[in-house]
Amino acid sequence: MIHVEDLQKSYGSLRAVDGISLDVPEGELFGFLGPNGAGKTTTLSMISGLLKPDRGRVSIADIDVWSSPKAAKRLLGLVPQDLALYEELSARENLMFWGSLFDLPRAKLKANIDLWLDRVGLKERAKGPVSKFSGGMKRRLNLAIGLVHNPRVVLLDEPTVGIDPQARKNILDIVRDIAREGTTILFTTHHLEEAESLCDRIAIMDHGRILETGSVEELAKVAGDGDVVTVNGPFDAGRFRAALENQNVNILTAGDGAGVVSLASGRMNVVALLQKLGEGGIEVTDISIQKPSLESVFLKLTGRELRD
Ligand SMILES: Nc1ncnc2c1ncn2[C@@H]1O[C@H](COP(=O)(O)OP(=O)(O)OP(=O)(O)O)[C@@H](O)[C@H]1O
Ligand SMILES: [Mg+2]
Fold first, then answer.
1. Which residue's alpha carbon is nearest to atom 25 within ligand 1?
2. Stated pTM of the model
3. Which residues, chain by chain, have CB under 5 Å from ion ligand 2?
4. Gap between the Cα atoms of 301 and 295, Å rounded
5. What dotted CATH number matches 225-291?
6. What are the tens digits of pLDDT across the range 131-141?
7. CA 227–ligand 2 middle distance (angstroms)
8. Which residue of 152, 227, 297, 308 has the fewest C-beta atoms within 10 A of its own C-beta?
9. Contact 226/263 with Cβ under 8 angstroms?
10. What is the CA radius of gyration of the chain?
């Protein structure tokens, strides 16, 4: 349903998107998970036809976004990361303005607006100016605007960023509902738990590239199947690495004062790990053990932790 081939985009000498290809079949909820600056928004902007790629192509339901922009855009809904709202207009007026760009019959648009005001919990607040809205209300309206023409394909760019838990739940419930109704969804986030609980498949992105794609279960295997151990202490990264050289461990990250490793299942346990570290002169002050997860995979692939 969404077909993306070798997309590239540079800003000056910075390659923001560096050859992204993907296929999202109809009805799938696909997530882009990546830290700040990974290139998520730039990719979504190119898929939605807002930003011209330097290279590559995008089609939605076999319609090329660049040669047939109008037809493609009718199928698409975009919920942008940066709120696109007219502050002086009401929620209903905003929906009317943005919805009228899609050539829907007037009665149909009005019915859709009532439905979406209700779904995002803004029915009672449809009239006042948006400038009086809380951050969560604005996010919910931003979502409704992207969905008001009931598009078959929806691009959501960090739809829950910076809002309270209740507004977040409302938004995530809606995303789940439209997925269940058969909408094809491409969703970006830097919340691991969101990606984990929502998406059928996830692409882990960094520096403009997709590092790995798969279901949560498939991705979890990338870091190995053994326990993931985090150790802290007054050591430097180089010594930590040296102490574990040629051992049955996979170093996911090593920094000064903290290291994370994945143990080779059945071949190294925590006691043996501590012993090796001790032999290498590494003092451990704190240790924690987890099962392999999306988080450990993310660490392994990007060398970074995701933070809100
Ligand atoms: N208009 C622009 N001009 C110059 N550089 C840009 C522009 N837009 C984005 N960039 C740069 O391109 C890279 C990718 O940015 P992008 O916004 O796509 O990342 P992102 O994954 O959406 O990040 P975030 O999680 O912060 O939203 C970043 O290094 C960013 O600074
Ligand atoms: Mg972004």
1. 36
2. 0.86
3. 40-41, 81
4. 10
5. 3.30.70
6. 999 999 999 99
7. 32
8. 308
9. yes
10. 23
CB of 39 sitting under 6 A from ligand 1: yes
Q: Is the CB of 203 under 6 A from ligand 1?
A: no
Which ligand 1 atom is nearest residue 17's CA? 14
The residues spanned by each domain of the chain are 2-220, 225-291
Residue 38 is classified by DSSP as: S
The b-or-e profile of 171-204 (16+ CB within 10 A means b, else e) is bbebbeebbeeebbbbbbbbbbebbbebbebbbb
CB 143 within 8 A of CB 171: yes
> Which of 7, 36, 54, 187 for mutating ligand 1's site (highest number of atoms within 8 Å of CB)?
36
Ligand 1 in reach of 204 Cβ (< 6 A):
no
CA–centroid distance, 259 to ligand 2, in Å, is 29
Q: Between 1.20.140.10, 3.40.50.300, 3.40.190.10, 3.55.10.10, what CATH number should domain 2-220 receive?
A: 3.40.50.300
Q: Which two tokens stand for residue 68?
A: 């047939």
